[in-house]
Each structure stands twice: as structure tokens, then as C-alpha cells.
């Protein structure tokens, strides 16, 4: 019969306690890790309001590009960000910010500059007569949150510039509107946009 010293007993007791504590901690840690991975947070909020009626101010330059205002979610409410003019960028278009309903909630898509994909049927218009500055437009109340404002622009027709007024259109899934606008190209002017482009 093996006789254990007090020191041996103490060591065995310490090792047993450490092993048991490790097993308990391991058992506790596993569910926490699993919960962290599997937990999906769904933030529900009311749908965004219809865009605010904006009066587009006079353009600062002929080849100005209007970036429309939009709603953002700030803490616990929607806050409106005003629209503004920016300088046109050659062969680029601004994808306007918008909200979409996904998986029972609302998702905000930030606006950004992207490359224009020229429409195959689009006829390139290049002229030497500078277009007038874009007209001041009042963006009327949107029919609903899923509508896009198609801004007015100057169209070259019959040897002169004629104004095409802005209007609302329903958003097309998978597409965004490329506004019609003029770009300076040396001593000439080139018309770009005026169609729906796939994301």
C-alpha cells in the first residue's frame, strides 16, 4: 500500500482543482464563442421619408454636376444632408446615395463617383458652342422613397441648346441614373450620360 506524503496530496489536490477549473472554463468558453459567431444583429427602423423638396441653386460653372441631397440615419433618427454642386469628372458619373429594403430592414448605400459605361446606342455629341449654365430647378415632392430625380439638362438640337426639364422616375432594380451633362474637352464640349447604367 502506497503512502502519500502531505506534499504529494497537496500537489494532487492542486492538479485536480486546476484540471477541473480548466474543464469548466472550456465548457463556458465554447458556448460564448458560438454565440458570438452565430448572433445576427437586426436593426429595425422606419422607412426613410420621401426626399425633401430642394431648390437647386445656380450652378457655379457651366460643367457643374449636381449631387442630390439624401437622408442619413444618425443615432435614432433620419437627418437630411443637403445637395450640392461639384465639378464634372471626365468619363465618370456620381451614383447618388439611396436606401433599399433588405431582409426586413433598411440599408443605406453611400454615394460615390464611378466610371461611365458608354451605352452602345448612345451617339456622342461634340460641339464648339458652350452650353448655358444648368437652370435653377425646384425638385418637387417625390412620389415615394423609391423614386429617383432625373435632373434637367441642356440638349443640343437643331443647331441650338434646348432645356429638358427634370422629373421623377421609379428606381430600376440593379441600375442607377447617369445624368445628362456637358464636359469641356479643350475648345469643344462633349455630352455625356442621359441613361440608366447597371451597378
Write a structural description.
With 199 residues, the protein is of the alpha+beta class. The protein contains 1 helix and 19 strands. It has one helix spanning 6-38; strands at 54-55, 64-67, 70-74, 77-81, 84-87, 92-95, 98-102, 105-109, 112-115, 126-127, 138-139, 147-150, 153-157, 160-164, 167-170, 175-178, 181-185, 188-192, 195-198. The chain has a 3-stranded antiparallel sheet with strand order 10-18-17, with no helix packed on it. A two-stranded antiparallel sheet has the order 1-11. Strand 17 and strand 18 form a beta hairpin. It is elongated and about 55 Å long. It starts with 5 loop residues before the first helix and ends with a strand.
Strand order of the largest sheet: 10-18-17
How much of the sequence is in beta strands?
A: 35-45%
- Uncertain regions spanning at least 5 consecutive residues: 1-43
Report the average pLDDT across residues: 75
Helix coverage percent of residues?
10-25%
- SS-derived structural category: alpha+beta
Kindly report how far apart the N and C termini lie: 82 Å
H-E string: HEEEEEEEEEEEEEEEEEEE
Total number of helices:
1
Give the biggest sheet: 3 strands, antiparallel
In total, the number of strands is 19
Which term fits the overall shape?
elongated
Q: For the CA atoms, what is the radius of gyration?
A: 30 Å
Amino acid at each position: 500500500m502506497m503512502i502519500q506524503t502531505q506534499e504529494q496530496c497537496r500537489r494532487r489536490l492542486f492538479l485536480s482543482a486546476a484540471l477541473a477549473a480548466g474543464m469548466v472554463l472550456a465548457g463556458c468558453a465554447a458556448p460564448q464563442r458560438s454565440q458570438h459567431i452565430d448572433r445576427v444583429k437586426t436593426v429595425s427602423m422606419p422607412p426613410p421619408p420621401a426626399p425633401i423638396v430642394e431648390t437647386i441653386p445656380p450652378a457655379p460653372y457651366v460643367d457643374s454636376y449636381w449631387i442630390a441631397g439624401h437622408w442619413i440615419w444618425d443615432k435614432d433618427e433620419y437627418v437630411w444632408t443637403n445637395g450640392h454642386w461639384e465639378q464634372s469628372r471626365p468619363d465618370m458619373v456620381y451614383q447618388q446615395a439611396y436606401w433599399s429594403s433588405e431582409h426586413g430592414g433598411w440599408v443605406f448605400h453611400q454615394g460615390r463617383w464611378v466610371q461611365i459605361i458608354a451605352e452602345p446606342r448612345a451617339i456622342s455629341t461634340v460641339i464648339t458652342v458652350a452650353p448655358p449654365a444648368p437652370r435653377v430647378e425646384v425638385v418637387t415632392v417625390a412620389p415615394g422613397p423609391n423614386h429617383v430625380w432625373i435632373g434637367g439638362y441642356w440638349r443640343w438640337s437643331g443647331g441650338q441648346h434646348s432645356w429638358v426639364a427634370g422629373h421623377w422616375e421609379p428606381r430600376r432594380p440593379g441600375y442607377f441614373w447617369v445624368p445628362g451633362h456637358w464636359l469641356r474637352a479643350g475648345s469643344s464640349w462633349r455630352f455625356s450620360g442621359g441613361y440608366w447604367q447597371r451597378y
